[in-house]
């Protein structure tokens, strides 16, 4: 049975004939016990309230801890996904850059081949031009020789004509 301060205050002691208690002393003692018991109950109630408050806070903290753990796990997953996506994107960019570089190199090779062909064509044209110039120069040289021989012949003829000139 749970005692209350009222139970202590209202408790009646059985009085026997052979022994008597001093009722004032018993009442004073009971008042003291009642007061201490009330204080103990009040402290117990305060401690119960405090325990309930702490249990409530603990429950809330555990819930917050669970939320934080879930947030950390979620953040880690998102972070891993971001890193994985960044790696994939960098691989794609790198692959695209390699393809573009290969295209540029191939274009450069084709340009070099074209330039080599152009150089070969220019060399052929130079050779043809040199041959044509030599032919023209040879033709002019022959024409000069022919002209020079004619001039000599004309000079000889002219000198002969002077000799037969009656005016002299």
Please give a structural write-up.
By secondary structure, this protein is mostly helical. The chain has one domain (19-163). The chain is built from two helices and no strands. The chain has helices spanning 5-10, 23-163. The longest helix is centred in the middle third of the chain and has 141 residues, at 23-163. 0% of the residues are buried.
- Dominant shape: rod-shaped
The mean pLDDT is 88
Uncertain residue segments: none
Strand segment count:
0
Number of helices: 2
- Ends distance: 186 Å
Q: N-to-C SSE series?
A: HH
Which secondary-structure class do the elements indicate? mainly alpha
Strand content: under 5%
What's a concise summary of this model?
This protein is mainly alpha-helical and 168 residues long. 88% of the residues lie in helices and 0% in strands. The protein has one domain (19-163).
Give the key terms:
single chain; 88% helix; mainly alpha; rod-shaped
Any chance you could write out the topology, listing elements then pairs?
Blueprint: H1 5-10, H2 23-163
């Amino acid at each position: 049975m749970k005692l209350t301060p009222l139970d202590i205050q209202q408790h009646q002691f059985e009085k026997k004939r052979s022994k008597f208690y001093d009722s004032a002393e018993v009442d004073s003692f009971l008042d003291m016990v009642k007061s201490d018991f009330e204080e103990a109950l009040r402290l117990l109630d305060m401690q119960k309230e405090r325990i309930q408050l702490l249990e409530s806070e603990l429950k809330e903290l555990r819930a917050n801890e669970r939320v934080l753990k879930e947030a950390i796990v979620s953040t880690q997953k998102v972070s891993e996904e971001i890193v994985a996506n960044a790696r994939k994107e960098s691989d794609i960019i790198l692959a695209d850059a390699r393809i573009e570089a290969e295209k540029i190199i191939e274009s450069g090779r084709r340009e070099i081949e074209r330039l080599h062909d152009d150089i070969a064509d220019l060399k052929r044209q130079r050779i043809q031009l040199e041959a044509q110039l030599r032919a023209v120069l040879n033709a002019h040289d022959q024409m000069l020789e022919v002209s020079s021989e004619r001039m000599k012949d004309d000079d000889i003829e002219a000198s002969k004509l002077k000799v037969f000139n009656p005016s002299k």
